C-alpha cells in the first residue's frame, strides 16, 4: 500500500462534482460485512477514520461535533429525558454522549451491523467507550422492525444513520416517523441525521414534510462538522408536544457544567442558535408550498 | 484537456492532509499575473470557479454566503456606515453587497491585481457587477500603502483578502490593524477575512490578539461556505467604540427588506448568531492566556 495515497469520498448520487479527500497514513481494516463495505484507516491529519460504503462516517478529529449535537439537541429539548432509544450509531459515539446527560437513566440502542460495533471497539475506542455505560442496553437488529414492537416507551429517539442510500434508506421514509411517534411516550422528541441543504435541499424539505405529517412541531438544526460534505450537517428534530420551542432548551447548562461533561461543541447558546438558517434555506424548508 | 479532470485544492502549508476537489467542465483562463497564478474554470457542480495560487477564492454556487457576511456583519454593526473602504475584493463580490446597504453613500476599493478585476469582469459578471455602482471608486494599488496615507476617513473598512501566504500576508499583521484604526473615523468598524479555527486556531487567536492591541471590542464571526476548507470561514471584526456589541446589529432588517436586497444568506437573526462558537473554540479564542 502506498502510504501517501488519499481516500476520496466520491458519490455521483449524493454529491456529484465535488469530493473531500483525506490522506491515508495506514489502512487498519477493510471488509464487506453482511450489510456494507467497512473501512477503517489512520489518516495523516484527522486521526482514525471510519468509512461505510465509501462514505466517511466519522473522523477522530471532529466527530465530537456531530455526536454532541445529535444527542444534546433533542435531550435538552425534553424536560425529562429518562428513557432514550438510539437507532444506529454502531460506532458508540452517540451512546457516549447520551449517557452524559444528567437526567438520562436508561438507554436502549439497536444497531443493524454487529461488525461496526466490533470494529469500533477495536479501532475507535474513543467512541466505543459509549458501550461501556451501565445505563446502556445494546441490541443487534433492524431499527425499523424493533420500533414496530414498541409503543409509548421512550422519551427521546435518536436516529444516527448513514446516508439515505444503502442500509439506512428506510430511516428517512414517512412510515419511519409514524413508527417513531408511536414508540414515544407523551411529550416525546425525535432527532434524525438530516444531511445538508447545501447539497440536497429537496431531500431535506421532503423529509421535513414526512415529519410534519406526524408531529406538530418540526425543526431543522445544524452543526458544523468539517469532514462531512459541505462542512455542515443538519438534524430533523420533532416533538409530539405542540408547546415545545426547539430553539429554547428545557435544560440549560453553565460553562462549568459543559466542561465537566467534557463537551467540546455543545453549549446552551449553541443550541439556541442551531435552528437559525441562511435566508435561502429558511425560505425553502419552512415556507408553505 | 481532459474534461472530467478534477481541480484539487491541496496545500501542505495551510491544510495538510485534507483536500477539497471540484470536477472541471472547462478551463476558461489561466495566467500568471504580476502577483499570482490565476485560474478560472467552469465546474460540473459549482458554476464558475476562481482560483488564485491554487486556492479556491469563490464558486458561483456559494460565493453569496461569504460576500454577504463579510459585508453586512460590519456594516450592520455600525449605526451609520456612510463611507466604506474595501481592501482587496478584486472579483467585485464584496462591492456588490456593500452598495446594497441603504446607509452606504460612498465606497472606495483598493485592489492590488488589476488582472483579477479584468478577468472577473469577463468570466464572473455576477460578481464584477459590483464595480458598476456609481457609489464605487476603484483604485489599483497596494492596500497597505493606500491606508498609510489615510487618516480618519472611513466608517467601515473591509479586508477581503486571500489567505495569509502570498500577496495578502501583510494584511494579517499587527501593523495592518494599527493602520486600519488610524484610517477610521471615530466609532469605526473593521472586518477582515479570518480563516477557520477548525484548521488553524493558533493563527486565528494570534490575529485576534493583534487586533486586541488596537481595538477595545474584538470578535470573531463565522459563516458557512461549503467550498472553503472545513466548510466554514470566520471574520475578525473590531470596533473603536467600546460600547459596540457586535452580536447586536445597530441596523436590523425585516425578511422583506432582506429579500428586496436579494440577500440569500444574511438576516438580522443570522447576524445575532454568527458570534456564537463551539465551546472548544470559544475557550481557545477568548480565554485569557
UniProtKB/TrEMBL annotation, chains A, B:
One of its GO terms (biological process) is polyamine biosynthetic process. SUPFAM superfamilies: S-adenosyl-L-methionine-dependent methyltransferases. Pfam families: Spermine_synt_N, Spermine_synth. Keywords: Polyamine biosynthesis, Transferase. The active site is at 160 (proton acceptor). It comes from the Eukaryota. CDD domains: AdoMet_MTases. GO terms for molecular function: transferase activity. InterPro entries: PABS (IPR030374), PABS_CS (IPR030373), SAM-dependent_MTases_sf (IPR029063), Spermi_synthase (IPR001045), Spermi_synthase_euk (IPR030668), Spermidine_synt_N (IPR035246), Spermidine_synt_N_sf (IPR037163). Residues 4-240 form the PABS domain. NCBIfam families: PRK00811.1, speE. HAMAP family: Spermidine_synth. Belongs to the spermidine/spermine synthase family. This is PABS domain-containing protein. The lineage of its organism: Eukaryota, Metazoa, Ecdysozoa, Arthropoda, Hexapoda.
Amino acid at each position: 500500500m502506498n502510504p501517501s495515497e488519499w481516500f476520496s469520498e466520491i458519490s455521483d448520487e449524493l454529491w456529484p462534482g465535488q469530493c473531500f479527500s483525506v490522506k491515508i497514513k495506514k489502512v487498519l481494516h477493510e471488509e464487506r460485512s453482511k450489510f456494507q463495505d467497512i473501512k477503517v484507516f489512520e489518516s495523516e491529519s484527522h486521526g482514525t477514520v471510519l468509512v461505510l460504503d465509501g462514505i466517511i462516517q466519522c473522523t477522530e478529529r471532529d466527530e465530537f461535533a456531530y455526536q454532541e449535537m445529535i444527542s444534546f439537541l433533542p435531550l435538552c429539548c425534553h424536560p425529562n429525558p429518562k428513557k432514550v432509544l438510539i437507532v444506529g450509531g454502531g460506532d458508540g459515539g452517540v451512546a457516549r454522549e447520551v449517557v452524559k446527560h444528567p437526567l438520562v437513566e436508561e438507554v436502549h440502542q439497536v444497531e443493524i451491523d454487529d461488525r461496526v460495533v466490533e470494529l469500533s471497539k477495536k479501532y475507535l475506542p474513543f467512541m466505543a467507550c459509549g458501550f461501556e455505560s451501565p445505563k446502556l442496553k445494546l441490541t443487534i437488529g433492524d431499527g425499523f422492525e424493533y420500533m414496530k414492537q414498541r409503543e409509548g416507551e421512550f422519551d427521546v429517539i435518536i436516529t444516527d444513520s448513514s446516508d439515505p442510500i444503502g442500509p439506512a434508506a428506510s430511516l428517512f421514509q414517512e412510515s419511519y416517523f409514524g413508527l417513531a411517534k408511536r414508540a414515544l411516550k407523551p411529550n416525546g422528541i425525535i432527532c434524525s441525521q438530516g444531511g445538508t441543504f447545501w447539497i440536497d435541499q429537496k431531500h431535506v424539505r421532503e423529509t421535513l414534510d414526512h415529519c410534519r405529517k406526524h408531529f406538530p412541531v418540526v425543526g431543522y438544526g445544524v452543526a458544523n462538522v468539517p469532514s462531512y460534505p459541505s462542512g455542515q450537517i443538519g438534524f430533523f428534530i420533532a416533538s409530539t408536544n405542540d408547546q415545545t420551542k426547539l430553539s429554547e432548551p428545557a435544560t440549560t447548562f453553565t460553562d462549568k457544567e459543559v466542561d465537566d461533561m467534557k463537551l467540546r461543541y455543545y453549549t446552551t447558546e449553541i443550541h439556541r442558535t442551531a435552528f437559525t438558517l441562511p435566508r435561502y434555506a429558511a425560505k425553502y424548508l419552512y415556507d408553505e408550498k
